[in-house]
Amino acid sequence: MGTMKQLPWHGPCFTCGPTPGGGMATRYFEREDGEIVAEVTLTEEQQGAPGHAHGGSLAAILDEAMGWAVWRAGHRALAAHLEFDYRHPTPLGVPLEARARLVGKGGRSVRAEGEIRLPDGRVSAQSKGVFVDLGDRFDESFGTRWGAPQPGA
Questions:
Q1: Closest CA to 87 of 47, 62, 46, 115
Q2: Average pLDDT, the chain
Q3: What is the pLDDT of residues 21-78, one digit of tens each?
Q4: CATH number assigned to the domain comprising residue 18
Q5: Contact 90/124 with Cβ under 8 angstroms?
Q6: Of residues 90, 135, 140, the one with CA closest to residue 115
Q7: Is residue 117 part of a domain?
Q8: Cα torsion at 54, 31, 144, 13 (round to 10°)?
Q9: Which residues contact 19 (CB under 8 A, 6 or more apart)?
Q10: What is the domain count for the chain?
Q11: Nearest to residue 76, comparing CAs of 153, 125, 146?
Q12: What secondary structure does DSSP assign to 7-18, as a single string?
């Protein structure tokens, strides 16, 4: 699988923030080839149908993973269009793995894809996303704290 490095903290985040407290405590890593790998075990805080993950929780994880793939490729981008397909119910309390990768770019448009896999390898959710590269205008709108060290670290 190659070496992976954990991605830097980038401020309070819905998917990678601590649980309890509203976050999902997802850990995001980058492989040498630029693919993003995320590890998470969802709890009742992310429940939809009894004992299973809410589709919005899965979508948020994939949104974040695709966004990381786009950012780590050097694009200061925001999501413009996201698609999600749910393939299998996703039980709570099991380790999940999400993966995302950059799949194309043209002009300011950057495309990424991702999936979440169950412990047995089945794909539970898939995603496609189009992101718009804002370049330096990103900092003007959102500041420069992204990737800063975590407070107290």
A1: 115
A2: 87
A3: 667 888 888 898 989 999 999 999 999 999 999 999 999 999 999 999 999 999 989 9
A4: 3.10.129.10
A5: yes
A6: 90
A7: yes
A8: 20
A9: 25, 43, 45
A10: 1
A11: 146
A12: PPP-SS-TTTS-
- pTM for the whole structure: 0.87
- Which tokens belong to 81? 């269009």
Q: Tell me the residue type at 141.
A: S
Is the separation of the CB atoms in 46 and 53 below 8 Å?
yes
The answer to whether the beta carbons of residues 134 and 142 sit under 8 Å apart is no
Instruction: Give the position of tokens 């999501």.
Output: 79
Residue 148 lies in a domain: no
Q: Which two tokens stand for residue 120?
A: 């047995």
What is the end-to-end Cα distance of the chain in Å, rounded? 28
Q: Are 4 and 30 in contact (CB under 8 A)?
A: yes
Sheet holding 95-106, edge to edge: 4-6, 27-31, 36-41, 95-106, 109-117, 123-133, 77-86
The CA distance from 148 to 11, in Å, is: 8
Beta bridge partners of 102: 112
Token representation of residue 144: 């420069």
Q: Which residue has the tokens 């009742």?
A: 44
